[in-house]
Inverse folding.
């Protein structure tokens, strides 16, 4: 099974589940369209089109270069880690950590290079969001931010 | 003549120092993000929504609009120099722009795209001023039935004209509609798909979804492989090299005119916009050309036509937004989100209730385009330097700004999770051949569609008969059916003739 077919089947499952939940909300109540009517139609359309897409199967890939899976997975981990670190560590520490991790760990830049970029980007995002836009950025358990 | 008087009044608004400053900021930012592969106008405008709230509504729209059409000026630069489109609507510029650059005509290619965009932009502004008010007064006659039909028509176009396989585009439309129904149903008060999570009661915010789909997923696309653009960028451009000569102008004049007209028309349609306009113009120029074999090998017509089409379309798509309250494409939809956050409801009454906004924004397009031609011809050398930023730094920067940007919309860590999960899912969908633009558009139009559909059904006492007895609605539905059926019939005929041969 290829990725194109697998995701089409997942979408079909989402469509089916959504339509079933919408059905229970009520399609037609008190002579009026109920809360479930529109989501039911959308879910049914998603189910039908995804099944058709799954049958259609593979799509012509226009990729000329192969994907570096190892690199992609490391980046994916960095993205997820950044999101998870926001609450406990705060936005500033999470940003510093992300840049250091990506530049040193994935891109093999020197520590000095990574550190400078990390400090600049952390300061920039803090300046823009905290100072200029007055967004109460998460400060984390250390209270930095 | 009224239109010209109003446009002059608008010019007065647009020339106020704040508005002039934000128009300049929009032009610079638009060019920059247009040039940079990775960060497109949808994600950037979403990022700037929190900034735009601090501005007056007029200034906010001037800024966001400037970023949109500015990105189309910049977008072609990376297409021409590196064959890497800076943003989606510039894919077409790779076809003939890159071969031109390879043949040593990079300067002329960059120059002609900027002039094509400028001419189209200025013409489109005047046409908007002329036809916009007429659109608004016609739209006042639109009730829920007509609006439903118009939105259905728009979704059909979005699914049928876009990139990629049609059935997949329809699946994305369905997913977008489904996502729009998450949250408390305003009519019945029932919670839909909230799974008892309080944060989901208000549904998803368009900017958070847009940043996930077009920002975070782009980080993962950038992460797929190591890239280095620096070798391709060694050339230097003198102003003289950027100016097209008499023959270039002669070859481009007609394609630019056709591109502007086609682009403007496509921009008006919900589901249309810059991306579709540039593709349509390219196909048209190739069909009309006496020497179509030159296309793809550096034909200047293949660059001039689409570049004017996408700019005309981008500006024309402000008509359905400002006059009907219907976003024609994903970028405009995010701008609509910005207007709603300001408490301004776009629609046929906007031009009456907020004339300074309508005319100020339209007039600012003249100023914005004038600034953009300066930024993109004499100053293009400065912007090309942006392509020297290593992707290793681009990817984490986009991530940081999208994640913190998503947080800042509601100051909510839940949105941080949404933007990241949305980014991963969007990456998976993109890699499986699903185009995300119809998804976001359907998400935006979903609540509008549901509200009007329900009202239409109630007006018809539960029967959908009104949708076919209203002539306007019937017309939209018939065209929608035709856009749906005609390509299928052509495919069938093609298959049949293929079998015979």
């Amino acid at each position: 099974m290829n990725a194109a077919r697998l995701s089409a089947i997942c979408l079909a499952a989402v469509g089916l589940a959504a339509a079933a939940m919408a059905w229970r909300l009520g399609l037609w109540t008190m002579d009026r369209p109920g809360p479930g009517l529109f989501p039911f139609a959308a879910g049914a359309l998603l189910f039908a089109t995804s099944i058709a897409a799954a049958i259609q199967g593979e799509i012509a890939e226009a990729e000329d270069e192969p994907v570096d899976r190892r690199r992609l997975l490391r980046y994916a981990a960095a993205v997820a880690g950044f999101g998870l670190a926001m609450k406990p560590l705060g936005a500033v520490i999470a940003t510093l950590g992300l840049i250091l991790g990506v530049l040193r760990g994935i891109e093999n830049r020197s520590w000095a290079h990574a550190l400078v970029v990390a400090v600049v980007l952390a300061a920039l995002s803090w300046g823009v969001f905290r100072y200029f836009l007055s967004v109460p950025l998460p400060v984390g358990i250390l209270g930095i931010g | 003549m009224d239109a010209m008087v109003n446009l002059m009044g608008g010019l007065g608004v647009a020339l106020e120092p704040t508005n002039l400053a934000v128009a300049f900021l929009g032009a610079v930012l638009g060019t920059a993000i247009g040039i940079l592969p990775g960060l497109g106008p949808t994600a950037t405008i979403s990022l700037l929504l929190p900034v735009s709230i601090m501005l007056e509504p007029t200034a906010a729209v001037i800024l966001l609009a400037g970023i949109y059409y500015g990105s189309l000026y910049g977008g072609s630069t990376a297409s021409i120099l590196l064959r890497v489109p800076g943003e989606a609507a510039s894919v077409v510029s790779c076809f003939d722009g890159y071969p031109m650059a390879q043949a040593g005509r990079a300067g002329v290619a960059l120059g002609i795209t900027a002039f094509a965009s400028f001419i189209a932009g200025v013409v489109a502004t005047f046409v908007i001023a002329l036809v916009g008010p007429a659109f608004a007064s016609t739209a006042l006659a639109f009730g829920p039935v007509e609006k439903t039909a118009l939105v259905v028509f728009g979704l059909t176009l979005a699914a049928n004209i876009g990139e990629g396989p049609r059935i997949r585009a329809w699946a994305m439309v369905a997913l977008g509609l489904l996502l729009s129904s998450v949250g408390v149903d305003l009519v019945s008060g029932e919670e839909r798909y909230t799974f008892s999570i309080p944060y989901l009661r208000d549904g998803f915010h368009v900017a958070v979804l847009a940043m996930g789909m077009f920002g975070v997923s782009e980080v993962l696309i950038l992460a797929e492989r190591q890239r280095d653009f620096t070798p391709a960028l060694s050339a230097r451009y003198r102003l003289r090299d950027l100016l097209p000569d008499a023959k270039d102008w002669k070859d481009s004049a007609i394609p630019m005119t056709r591109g502007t007209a086609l682009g403007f028309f496509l921009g008006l349609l919900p589901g249309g916009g810059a991306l579709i306009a540039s593709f349509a113009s390219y196909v048209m120029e190739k069909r009309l050309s006496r020497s179509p074999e030159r296309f793809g090998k550096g034909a200047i017509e293949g660059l001039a036509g689409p570049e004017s089409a996408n700019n005309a379309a981008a500006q024309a798509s402000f008509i359905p937004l400002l006059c009907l309250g219907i976003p024609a494409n994903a970028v405009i939809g995010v701008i609509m989100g910005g207007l709603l956050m300001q408490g301004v409801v776009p629609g046929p009454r906007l031009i009456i209730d907020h004339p300074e906004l309508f005319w100020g924004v339209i007039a600012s397009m003249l100023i914005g385009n004038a600034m953009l031609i300066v930024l993109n011809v004499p100053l293009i050398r400065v912007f090309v330097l942006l392509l020297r930023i290593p992707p290793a730094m681009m990817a984490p920067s986009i991530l940081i700004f999208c994640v913190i940007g998503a947080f800042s919309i509601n100051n909510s860590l839940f949105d941080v999770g949404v933007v990241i999960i949305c980014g991963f899912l969007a990456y998976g969908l993109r890699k499986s051949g699903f185009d995300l633009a119809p998804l976001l558009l359907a998400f935006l139009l979903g609540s509008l569609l549901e509200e009007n559909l329900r009202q239409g059904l109630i007006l018809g006492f539960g029967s959908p008969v009104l949708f076919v007895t209203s002539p306007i609605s019937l017309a939209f539905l018939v065209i929608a059916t035709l856009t749906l059926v005609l390509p299928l019939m052509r495919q069938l005929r093609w298959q049949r003739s293929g079998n015979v041969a």
In short: Chain A touches chain B through 69 residues (CB under 8 Å).
